[in-house]
């Protein structure tokens, strides 16, 4: 299951590419050449690599499972709620507030609950395996 968390975190870091690229698209001298895209892609690869490596060393305790689930799903919910309305309804003046006030916090709460449930089932699986040994 740790692999699933690592893949979700990698997905979040891929959204970093778009977050970083958006400000660079407003810089006039970077719009004509590919420098801004290469710079943002390198940043996204660096963040993805760091995320992948650092999530490998997280302990498998209760607090880390809850925290990891909450952060990952909260970030996905925030990105979906913040950037989704910007992409799909660009004229809506309050679209990004969806991610700030609704989908981000709800993703954080559901991720924490999901991390707790994951820890409960993982703990029962480990205790069953120890009894058979």
Describe the overall structure.
The protein is mainly alpha-helical and 133 residues long. The protein has two domains: 1-57; 59-133. It has five helices and no strands. It is flat and about 60 Å long. The chain starts with a helix and ends with a helix. The model has no long low-confidence stretch (mean pLDDT 77).
Proportion of residues in extended strands: under 5%
Radius of gyration: 18 Å
How many domains make up the coordinates? Answer: 2
Number of strands: 0
Question: Which regions are unreliable across 5 or more consecutive residues at pLDDT < 50?
Answer: none
- C-alpha geometry: flat
Brief sketch in words of this structure:
This protein is mostly helical. The chain has helices at residues 2-24, 28-31, 35-54, 62-88, 97-132.
Give the secondary structure arrangement, pairings included:
Elements: H1 2-24, H2 28-31, H3 35-54, H4 62-88, H5 97-132
């Amino acid at each position: 299951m740790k692999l699933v968390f690592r893949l979700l975190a990698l997905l979040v870091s891929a959204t970093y590419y778009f977050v970083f690229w958006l400000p660079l698209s407003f810089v006039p001298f970077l719009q004509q050449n590919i420098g801004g895209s290469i710079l943002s892609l390198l940043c996204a690869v660096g963040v993805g690599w760091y995320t992948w490596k650092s999530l490998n060393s997280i302990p498998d305790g209760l607090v880390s499972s809850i925290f990891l689930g909450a952060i990952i799903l909260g970030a996905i919910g925030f990105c979906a709620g913040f950037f989704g309305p910007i992409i799909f309804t660009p004229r809506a003046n309050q679209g990004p507030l969806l991610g700030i006030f609704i989908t981000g916090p709800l993703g954080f709460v559901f991720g924490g609950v999901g991390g707790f449930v994951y820890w409960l089932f993982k703990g029962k699986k480990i205790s069953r395996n120890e009894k058979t040994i």
